[in-house]
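User: I've been trying to design a sequence by hand for this structure and keep getting stuck. Would you show me what you'd pick, starting by listing the structure so we're on the same page?

Assistant: Good idea, let's start from the same input. This is the structure you sent:
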């Protein structure tokens, strides 16, 4: 192995997928959560959906590569297989609520991990942590308001709740398929936030990958 190959190996080993930074970090409270599910049973014979989005703003422009969040299920029954959806919206200029869909991806293989904790609500359902990697990175600008929606898709036998978070901006939005538009959610204390982390690669990792590409030996023509 020549010196350039050795250097490339060191650089690429340093650029580990574990090298990542949280560009948004809203930790779970264990005190309840919002329904974020396209189909769940309200009472026998009646199925409806309710979706939730939470807003965020970055201080510095970055590139979203992965999302982690926390949630639980009504009756403490997680489905053996579930379809989860991630959407990112711009904010409408008229009222700041979710507007244009900037990113939309569904996942049938999301990483769902029991945390070993329970939620402090009736029935004490178990808490789960989820993670998905975006198939395409999403560039995000600084100082711009965005909204993120995380939901379970099309499984009326299971009702997913996106867990509440410690205070972020204090704004979350909901939409019921029976209505045509988003509205701001309210809690008894006023603010509403959901538990999630937005993950981007460390700047040093991007620099190492670029350097590795520049140093890669090229074939002579």
């Amino acid at each position: 192995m020549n010196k350039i190959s050795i250097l490339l190996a060191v650089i690429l080993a340093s650029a580990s997928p574990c090298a990542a930074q949280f560009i948004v970090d809203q930790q779970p409270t264990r005190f309840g959560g919002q329904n974020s599910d396209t189909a769940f049973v309200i009472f026998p014979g009646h199925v409806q959906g309710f979706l939730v989005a939470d807003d965020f703003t970055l201080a510095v422009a970055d590139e979203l590569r992965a999302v982690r969040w926390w949630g639980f299920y009504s009756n403490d029954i997680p489905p053996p297989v579930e379809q989860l959806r991630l959407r990112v919206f711009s904010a409408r200029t008229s009222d700041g609520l979710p507007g244009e869909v900037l990113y939309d991806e569904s996942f049938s293989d999301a990483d769902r991990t029991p945390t070993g904790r329970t939620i402090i609500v009736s029935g004490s359902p178990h808490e789960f942590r989820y993670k998905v990697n975006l198939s395409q990175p999403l560039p995000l600008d600084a100082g711009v308001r965005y909204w993120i929606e995380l939901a379970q898709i099309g499984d009326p036998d299971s009702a997913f709740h996106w867990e509440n978070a410690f205070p972020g901006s204090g704004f979350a939005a909901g939409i019921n398929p029976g209505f045509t538009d988003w509205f701001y959610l309210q809690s008894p204390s006023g603010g509403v936030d959901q538990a999630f982390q937005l993950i981007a690669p460390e700047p040093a990792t991007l620099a190492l990958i670029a350097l590795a590409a520049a140093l890669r030996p090229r074939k002579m023509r």
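That's my pick for every position. To get oriented when you compare it with your attempt: The longest strand covers residues 126-140. The longest helix spans residues 203-215.
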